[in-house]
Design goal:
Blueprint lengths: L13 H6 L23 E5 L9 H14 L3 E2 L3 E2 L4 H8 L5 H12 L14 H26 L6 H10 L3 E6 L4 H11 L2 H5 L3 E3 L12 H10 L6 E5 L2 H9 L4 E3 L17 E2 L16 H4 L58 H6 L23 E5 L9 H14 L3 E2 L3 E2 L4 H8 L5 H12 L14 H26 L6 H10 L3 E6 L4 H11 L2 H5 L3 E3 L12 H10 L6 E5 L2 H9 L4 E3 L17 E2 L16 H4 L52
Parallel strand pairs: 1-4, 1-6, 4-5, 6-7, 7-8, 9-12, 9-14, 12-13, 14-15, 15-16
Antiparallel strand pairs: 2-3, 10-11
C-alpha cells in the first residue's frame, strides 16, 4: 500500500488503506474486505449524519455557545465569544469537525482567555488544550440538547430502510462529528437495530483527517468493495460535498433549512433537494432506491421526478419547480479541482489549496505560479531535512525525551520505567516521523505508562493525547537547553546552503518533521536568521497535517518553488525521510548520522549515500557541491559525485566509496518497484 507495508491479498483491508492516507490500491487477486453486511453489492449509499439524518447544526451551535459561556470566553479587545446562526452557517460550509471549527474561528478572530482573564494560549500545545476542554464541555451540553430536541429529517429513515432491505445495496453513515456526540445522535434517531444492519458506520474519530478530506469516504468505499462511481453520497454542506468529490463519488445534497445555501450544483453536486422537502416522505418521496439505483442499471440515476437532478448519463434535469430548490438546469461544463474536492479557478489554485488536498492537487492549465519563493524562475531546488542533516540532533532529542520521561516518573505497569536506549531510538528515528507520533508508536506497542508510578494509565484517545502533549511540552523545554550547549552543524551543510542561496537559479529550503518550537530553536541557532530570511521554503512539522514518511511537506515545498518533483533534490538522513522524498517522487541524497543504525539506503532508492563520518564534506574534502549536483545548463541533477558516493542522473554507476563507513553500493538497482511512499518492494 501507499504506507509502505507489503500486503498479501488476504491482508489488504480498510485499516491498511486508512494508514496509507486512503491512497492504497488493492493488489490484483485480493479478496474483498470483510465487515460489510451486504454480499456482492451493486451500489452503495453513504449518508452524512449532522444535517442529513438530523438537522443538528443548530443544536451544535447552541452547544458550542453554551460551552463558550460556561468557560466565560473573551477575545481581548473584541468581547465574548458567541456564534450567530448566520456565522455558524458559514462555518458549517467551510470547516469540517468541531475542533477544526474552533481553531479556524480563533485563528482568524484572535484566541480568547477563560473567564475574561489576561492569559491567552500562545503555543500550539496550549491552544490544543483549550480546544479540547471546550469540545469536552460542548459534547456534554450537546447530549442533553439532542435528547430533548433532535428528530430525523424527512425521508432519511425511509431511504435507509429501503437500502437495508435491498440485498444488493450497501448502506452506511460517515460523519465528521466526534464519536461520542455522533453515537448519541444515531442511537437516538437511527436506532440500534438499524445500526447493526449497516455496512459502514464511521465517525470523525475513526479517521486521521476530517472532511473536506476524502479519507472517510475512501475508507467506506474500501469496506464495501466498490468503485467510487458506484458509491452515492448524501450530504448537506459544501464541506461534505468536497469530501465526496475528493473521493470521486457522486453526491446528492439535501440542504438544511438553517443552511446558508450556496449553488451546490455549480460546485459539482449531481442533485440538490428542496430545502424544505429534503428526500421526501410518503406520497411526496423524491429520492427512492428504485429511482436512484434502477434494476439492472450499471450506474446511479439522478434524474428524479421533479427535476432535482440530472441522470447519471449526463442529461439535464431542469430546475425544480417548488420554491426553495437550489438545483440549476445544467451541470458545470468545466470543473478543475484538487484531491480535496475543492473547485478551483486557475488563479485560486495555490500552495494552501494543495495543503488542504493532502498535497495531491494538480495545478490547472494556465494557473499562475504560487508566490513566496525568493528565487525567480529556478532551474532546480535543494531541500534539506533539519534534524540529523543540518545538525546531528537525534541524540539530543533522545536525551530530552528521557529527561521528560524521568521528570514525570513514567512507568509502564509490569515493565518498569520508560527510557529509550541509543539502539532503540535509532529504530524509532528510521520508523516514525515526529516526536508525538514516536511516543504514541512506542506506547501503543509497549503499553501506556502512568505518571510517577501510579496505577492510572490513559485509556481514551483524549487521555492519551493529553499525556503525550504534556510529555512533548516538557521534552521541548529540556531540548532547548541541550541544543544551546551541545548542537553544532554537520560537515558541509552550511557551505552547501550558502552556495544555493548565492545561486540565482537554485531554490533552497528546509523541511523538518520536528515541532516548530524545537525546530526554530535549532535553525535560528545553527543556520542563523540571515540565512533563514533568504530561503525559499522553511517548514516544520506543525505546518502540515501529516508528518514524514508522508510526502505532504515535500509536495508543498515543490508547489511553493513551482518546479516538477524531478528537479527537487532532497537531503535526508533516515529511512523515514527517504520515504517522504520518494513518496513525493523526488530524488534523495542520504547523509547518515554517526549515531544512526544505518540500513542499505541505496537498496531503498537513495540516489547517493554519503560517508557516515564525512557527510557532505567541507573545504578540500567537499563531496557534494552545487556545481556537481546542478551542472550549468543541465536539465536534471547529477549524482555522480567524485569518490563514488552516488550514481549520475543519467543512470551510470558511481562505484563504492573507498573510505570506511560509506554505505553506497556499487550498482544502482536495475529494477525498482515502489509504492507512493517510496518504499522499494
Amino acid at each position: 500500500g501507499a504506507d509502505g507495508v507489503v500486503y498479501d491479498p488476504d491482508q489488504f483491508d480498510a485499516d491498511a488503506n486508512q494508514r496509507s492516507g486512503g491512497m492504497a490500491v488493492r493488489p490484483a487477486g485480493a479478496t474483498a474486505p470483510k465487515g460489510s453486511n451486504t454480499e456482492n453489492p451493486r451500489f452503495a449509499l453513504l449518508f452524512d449524519c449532522d444535517g442529513v439524518i438530523v438537522e443538528t447544526e443548530e443544536l451544535h451551535r447552541k452547544a458550542y455557545n453554551a460551552s463558550f459561556k460556561h468557560f466565560g470566553l473573551v477575545i481581548p479587545g473584541k468581547g465574548k465569544v458567541e456564534w450567530s446562526v448566520e456565522y455558524y452557517d458559514i462555518l458549517a460550509n467551510t470547516v469540517g469537525g468541531g475542533k477544526p471549527k474552533m481553531r479556524y474561528h480563533f485563528d482568524n478572530n484572535g484566541w480568547p482567555s477563560f473567564f475574561g482573564g489576561s492569559k491567552v494560549p500562545r503555543t500550539d500545545e496550549e491552544k490544543t488544550k483549550m480546544v479540547d476542554s471546550l469540545q469536552d464541555m460542548k459534547t456534554e451540553f450537546y447530549k442533553g440538547i439532542v435528547e430533548s430536541q433532535a428528530e430525523a429529517r424527512p425521508g432519511v429513515l425511509r431511504l435507509i430502510d429501503e437500502a437495508i432491505a435491498a440485498p444488493d445495496i450497501a448502506v452506511g453513515i460517515c460523519s465528521a462529528a466526534t464519536k461520542e456526540g455522533f453515537l448519541k445522535v444515531v442511537n437516538s434517531i437511527v436506532g440500534p437495530d438499524r445500526l447493526s444492519r449497516l455496512d459502514v458506520v464511521m465517525a470523525g474519530d475513526d479517521v486521521t483527517k476530517k472532511k473536506p478530506d476524502p479519507l472517510i469516504y475512501n475508507l467506506a468505499r474500501e469496506k464495501v468493495g466498490l468503485p467510487a462511481s458506484k458509491c452515492v453520497v448524501i450530504e448537506d454542506s459544501l464541506v461534505g460535498l468536497r469530501a465526496a468529490m475528493g473521493a470521486n463519488m457522486p453526491c446528492v445534497i439535501t440542504p438544511c433549512p438553517s443552511s446558508d445555501v450556496p449553488d451546490f450544483r455549480a460546485h459539482g453536486a449531481r442533485a440538490v433537494m428542496d430545502v424544505n422537502v429534503g428526500l421526501g416522505d410518503g406520497a411526496g418521496a423524491v429520492v427512492t432506491l428504485a429511482k436512484l439505483f434502477p434494476p439492472n442499471a450499471t450506474e446511479p440515476d439522478f434524474d428524479f421526478a421533479g427535476g432535482y437532478g440530472s441522470s447519471g448519463h449526463g442529461s439535464s434535469g431542469g430546475v425544480a419547480g417548488s420554491a426553495g430548490s437550489y438545483s440549476v438546469s445544467v451541470a458545470p461544463t468545466r470543473v478543475t479541482r484538487g484531491a480535496d474536492g475543492v473547485v478551483y479557478d486557475p488563479d485560486q489554485f495555490d500552495a494552501d489549496a494543495n495543503q488542504r488536498s493532502g498535497g495531491m492537487a494538480v495545478r490547472p492549465a494556465g494557473a499562475t505560479a504560487p508566490k513566496g519563493s525568493n528565487t525567480e524562475n529556478p532551474r532546480f531546488a535543494l531541500l534539506f531535512d533539519c534534524d540529523g542533516v543540518i545538525v546531528e540532533t537525534e541524540e539530543l532529542h533522545r536525551k530530552a525525551y528521557n529527561a521528560s520521561f524521568k521528570h514525570f516518573g513514567l512507568v509502564i505497569p509490569g515493565k518498569g520505567k520508560v527510557e529509550w536506549s541509543v539502539e532503540y531510538y535509532d529504530i524509532l528515528a528510521n520508523t516514525v516521523g515526529g516526536g508525538k507520533p514516536k511516543m504514541r508508536y512506542h506506547f501503543d506497542n509497549n503499553g501506556w505508562p502512568s505518571f510517577f508510578g501510579g496505577s492510572k494509565v490513559p485509556r481514551t484517545d483524549e487521555e492519551k493525547t493529553k499525556m503525550v502533549d504534556s510529555l512533548q511540552d516538557m521534552k521541548t523545554e529540556f531540548y532547548k537547553g541541550i541544543v544551546e550547549s551541545q548542537a553544532e552543524a554537520r560537515p558541509g551543510v552550511l557551505r552547501l546552503i550558502d552556495e544555493a542561496i548565492a545561486a540565482p537559479d537554485i531554490a533552497v529550503g528546509i523541511c523538518s518533521a520536528a515541532t516548530k518550537e524545537g525546530f526554530l530553536k535549532v535553525v535560528n541557532s545553527i543556520v542563523g536568521p540571515d540565512r533563514l530570511s533568504r530561503l525559499d521554503v522553511v517548514m516544520a512539522g506543525d505546518d502540515v497535517t501529516k508528518k514524514k514518511p508522508d510526502p505532504l511537506i515535500y509536495n508543498l515545498a515543490r508547489e511553493k518553488v513551482g518546479l516538477p518533483a524531478s528537479k527537487c533534490v532532497v537531503i535526508e538522513d533516515s529511512l523515514v525521510g527517504l520515504r517522504a522524498a520518494m513518496g513525493a517522487n523526488m530524488p534523495c541524497v542520504i547523509t547518515p548520522c554517526p549515531s544512526s543504525d544505518v540500513p542499505d539506503f541505496r537498496a531503498h532508492g537513495a540516489r547517493a549515500v554519503m560517508d557516515v563520518n564525512v557527510g557532505l564534506g567541507d573545504g578540500a574534502g567537499a563531496v557534494v557541491t552545487l556545481a556537481k549536483l546542478f551542472p550549468p545548463n543541465a536539465t536534471e541533477p547529477d549524482f555522480d559525485f567524485a569518490g563514488g558516493y552516488g550514481s549520475s542522473g543519467h543512470g551510470s554507476s558511481g562505484g563504492v566509496a573507498g573510505s570506511a563507513g560509506s554505505y553506497s553500493v556499487s550498482v544502482a538497482p536495475t529494477r525498482v518497484t515502489r509504492g507512493a511512499d517510496g518504499v522499494v518492494y
